[in-house]
Amino acid sequence: MDKLKILLEYLLIILGCASLAFGIVMFLAPNQIPAGGPPGLAILGNYALGLSPGLILFLVNAPLILAGYKLLGRKLFIRSMIVVLLTSVMTDGLPLLMALPDLGDNRLLNALYGGVMVGLGIGLMFKAGSSSGGWSILARLIATRFNLSLGQCLFFMDAAVILLSAAVFQDFEAAMLGGIAVFVTGRMVDLIVSGSSDIKVVHISCWKADRLKPIIEQQMGISGSVVKATSMKSGGEKEILFLIIEKTQLVPIRKLVETHDPDAYLVVMNAMEVYGTGSRA
């Protein structure tokens, strides 16, 4: 079973590398649309210096992966190096192995589909327990040095690549399209890694939990947990019902609460992932 799991993980890595390479060579690079991170630098370097995108990907990623060995650990380091090698080889090899189709000159569509392909590739790599390269390592080092969050650092680094593209291509539209591609890439990564969940987390802060609990259980078949709380305003004892529900159950449960405890209020959040057999007990 472990061998099969490892085999599937490496299959995801290969598919992820192929998707990332396709996104670069089929959609983004031919239309001078920069992505964020090393793929964006590869597109800019190919245009400005005439170097192959795959070579630039390797030159950017490999030193960062090596520098981040201690941060990654042995397993993630090996998989990340495999990703760097495969992505670099596929990016340069695909145009040599096959005639790439002409996908039209609509740059907006190419930015959207390029972002999808790159995001799909990165998401599959993350799913397989690998990284997509050394960009996140550099971001972590900078974030530690300047006391920034990792998300802020990645945003500023990607933004710098996008802004640089306006100067390299002498085309501000390219930068705007690059921003769209980066946004779509991020959303695609989230979709692959976390999924598109229809599960909602509902917190019901109420004074009449004993009345609401049996009604919710009997009429909707929903069970959950009760948390004791104290009102900040009055200091009185309250209770919070913690429920995990389907999206389709949100309106009915809201109506139940409005009917039986109009003084209660609901807080609804998206549940990206729910694990465990007792998650709705």
In short:
The protein has 281 residues and is α+β, with helices and mostly antiparallel strands. It contains 11 helices and 4 strands; from the N terminus they run αααααααααβαββαβ.
Major sheet summary line: 4 strands, antiparallel
In total, the number of domains comes to 2
Give the count of helical stretches.
11
Q: Spans of 5+ residues with little confidence (pLDDT < 50)?
A: none
Secondary structure class reads alpha+beta
End-to-end C-alpha gap: 30 Å
Mean pLDDT: 84
Q: Which radius of gyration do the C-alpha atoms yield?
A: 24 Å
3D shape: elongated
Task: Note the beta-strand portion.
Answer: 5-15%
In what order do the strands lie side by side in the largest sheet? 2-3-1-4
Helix content: 55-70%
Number of E strands: 4
Order of helices and strands: HHHHHHHHHEHEEHE
Structure description:
The chain is of the alpha+beta class and 281 residues long. The chain folds into 2 domains: 2-194, no CATH class; 199-270, Alpha-Beta Plaits. It is 65% helix and 11% strand. It contains 11 helices and 4 strands. It has helices at 2-28, 37-49, 53-67, 69-72, 74-97, 107-127, 135-146, 150-169, 172-194, 209-220, 250-260; strands at residues 199-206, 224-230, 237-246, 265-270. A 4-stranded antiparallel sheet has the order 2-3-1-4, covered by helices on one side. Strand 2 (224-230) and strand 3 (237-246) form a beta hairpin. Helix 2 (37-49) packs across helix 3, helix 3 (53-67) runs antiparallel to helix 5 (74-97) and helix 8 (150-169) runs antiparallel to helix 9 (172-194). The longest helix has 27 residues, at 2-28. It starts with a helix and ends in an 11-residue tail after the last strand. The relative contact order is 0.13. The mean pLDDT is 84.
